[in-house]
Amino acid sequence: MKHIIAPSILSADFANLQRDIEMINNSEADWFHIDVMDGVFVPNISFGFPVMKAVNKYAKKPLDVHLMIVNPDQYIEEFAKNGAAIITVHYEACTHLHRTIQLIKSHGCKASVALNPHTPVILLKDILADLDMVLIMSVNPGFGGQQFIEQSFNKITELRNMANEIHPDLIIEVDGGVSISNIDALITAGATAFVAGNAIFAAADQTQMIADMKNRPEVSYQI
Ligand SMILES: O=C(CO)[C@@H](O)[C@H](O)COP(=O)(O)O
What we know:
eight-stranded parallel beta sheet, globular, binds 5-O-phosphono-D-xylulose
């Protein structure tokens, strides 16, 4: 099976957002990755509903919305109304994670949980069967263009082993420092979806970079 490529619009040119959305529409990318940051959960503010609406107006692929915010329950309905297909909340931001997951699903979205680099995957064991996806943060969230944290490989493998027992078709998404140099090893470790910001938007030929990240002749995943 082919893995999923989700360009992160955080690294797009916001003065030419429609152009960058069309580039993704016309590429081999699978999803749009949308990073929402509130300046509280992470030390950065990205954007909220106005940008989400603008992306939803032109995007022809599913919107993969990553909420790096506190109190995500308060905003889930609004993100769903604005076109979110997948909503990821942070384990570290949710006191009643089971309730939050049910809320996401009740709005017709796929439910996903993100883990910061310091959070062990075992903490998701009792909720894994309810999830469509787990997002492994391979940098500390808040900024694009950071260096990949190598320990993430072990987390991906550990999560894939746990998922094989409980939920074999779980999507494991990796976010942060993903590039053409580490994507093969990440697929081999058990990841099936890849967020890439800098690797795509800083490339001389963005469409070609997406195609290169999508078509990896040496690796494919089995679930
Ligand atoms: O969530 C985040 C950052 O918090 C990511 O989605 C970044 O936007 C990925 O950017 P690169 O590391 O690929 O440049």
